[in-house]
Design a protein that fits this description.
Helix content is 24%, strand content 23%. The chain is an alpha+beta fold. A hairpin with a 5-residue loop joins strand 17 and strand 18.
């Protein structure tokens, strides 16, 4: 039997990639519901059985119709004949096909984005991204520090622009935060004389500087607002160990906050070098060189929380690595060590060959000479990064000197109107996508925010 001019109701559902069909957790997530006219000859054998469910590639009409390119492993379709007998040639069928095409385009869209930078090229323009603190600026910091001490303010967490006052330096820091979020995504501040300050003093200064860009958020289950990046002798092979507490290499990653600042107090005897790469540049090169891998990285991966589980959440979550924002920008969220930690859990599906290859392609581009920018932080240097548009890494290191490698870390959430608009799925890691003090960070029950002067 032939439906010469047929009208069909089309539903495309995303198959939950990480659930067994026999599991109670298996589900079909609605992606598209559209009404489309087909004026192609469609025969009864091309239609699904009475249940209405079939796999995309089993439908010959789809190979010639609007849904071309939706992989069978990605989607299932339900197609049901409509009761309408209207000839679609008289009722603007293109209008209906356009709706279906627009809905599918997000699945198929692999394009390049603006905002990329390349390490070798930007290295020659250091005047744009290196800020050497002047004597006047350092003096203003000292005055602010003395003022909070004179007032008897001991709780660094409570410090803000209204208490740690920087009349001329403050507006520059606000502008720096804007540049991080909306511009190149990284900067290097140099010249803070850390050797003359106590541990408490330098923590107060670092937090005070960051507060001009937003609110500092907790970095671990202990609620540390200012964190210590230092080798504490922990096992890097333990799936619950966060690598910043070891001397092992940290692969390219993003942190769980909009902005991260790293203040160097002392450097390692050897190693411990910093690498920064534009995630937009990585994406653009993936599109050009490995488009299939780029598509895979738009699909969810299982990620471990390494035991720091917020209320109501599970030990793992799923999220794609690359995302398109409502503003038309590209953003990324990635840490392969957290993906590999999830793989050590019994209920986590193994990576497919395509997934493993896509991650390898991403990592190879991130550390390539063509894209990477190398930095070795000296005492008094502060590296500022926008996590949504840059990836950063650290080489392994050894401590043979008197002072071991020790950095302070700050995670900052910019206020409303200053932050990037994030996709809804980021709420799984950031708790909320609404800009402000509750976005990002590690939040668990019983946590008390604090700034420990020692790790």
């Amino acid at each position: 039997m032939q439906y010469k001019y047929a009208v069909f109701e089309i539903n495309i559902c995303d198959v939950h990639r990480h659930a067994c069909p026999r599991s109670p957790h298996f589900r079909l997530v609605p992606l598209i519901r559209a009404r489309a006219h087909f004026s192609l000859p469609i025969y009864r054998e091309h239609l699904p059985p009475s249940s209405g469910c079939c796999v995309a590639t089993h439908l010959g009409v789809l190979k010639r119709g609007t849904m071309r390119g939706v992989a069978a492993s990605r989607a299932r379709l339900s197609i049901t004949p409509s009761s309408s007998t209207r000839d679609p040639r008289r009722h603007h069928p293109r209008r209906y096909l356009a709706r279906a095409n627009a809905a599918v385009s997000e699945l198929q869209q692999v394009k390049c984005f603006d905002g990329a930078w390349y390490g070798p090229e930007i290295k020659s323009r250091v005047q744009e991204w290196i800020w050497v603190l002047s004597e006047e600026e350092i003096n203003e910091i000292d005055i602010a520090l003395s003022a909070v001490k004179a007032k008897g303010l001991n709780d660094i967490v409570s410090f803000g622009p209204e208490t740690f006052t920087l009349p001329t330096l403050g507006p520059k820091l606000v502008a720096l935060g804007d540049e991080l979020v909306s511009g190149r995504g990284f900067a290097l501040m140099r010249g803070l004389p850390v050797e003359k300050y106590s541990n408490w003093d330098v923590c107060a200064i670092f937090h005070g500087l960051g507060r001009y860009m937003g609110t500092a958020v907790p970095q671990n289950r202990a609620g540390h607002i200012v964190g210590h990046v230092k080798d504490l002798g922990r096992d890097p092979n333990d799936p619950l160990t966060r690598l910043y507490t070891t001397n092992a290499a940290q692969p390219y990653h993003t942190d769980s906050a909009d902005i991260v600042g790293l203040l160097c107090l002392s450097q390692a005897t050897s190693g411990g070098h910093s690498q920064v790469t534009s995630s937009v540049a990585i994406w653009n090169e993936l599109v050009k060189r490995h488009p299939e891998s780029a598509k895979v990285l738009l699909e969810p991966f299982v990620v471990s929380r390494k035991g720091e589980i917020p209320p109501g959440k599970q030990a793992t979550y799923t999220i794609p690595i690359f995302h398109h924002t409502a503003e038309g920008r590209l953003c990324a969220i990635y840490d392969r060590s957290f993906i590999e930690a999830a793989l050590k859990m019994a209920d986590t599906p193994r990576l497919s060959e395509a997934q493993a290859q896509a991650l390898d392609h991403l990592d190879a581009l991130a550390c390539s000479d063509e894209l990477r920018l190398d930095m070795t932080l000296a005492p008094g240097d502060i590296q500022w990064l926008h996590n949504h548009t840059t990836l950063h890494a650290r080489s392994a290191f050894t401590n043979d000197g008197v002072k071991p490698r020790h950095l302070l870390r700050l995670w900052v959430s910019p206020p409303k109107g200053k932050a990037m608009t994030l996709p809804a799925v980021f709420a799984e890691r950031f708790d909320t996508i609404e800009p402000g003090p509750l976005r990002g960070g590690i939040r668990v029950e019983g946590q008390t925010l604090c700034v420990p002067p020692e790790p």
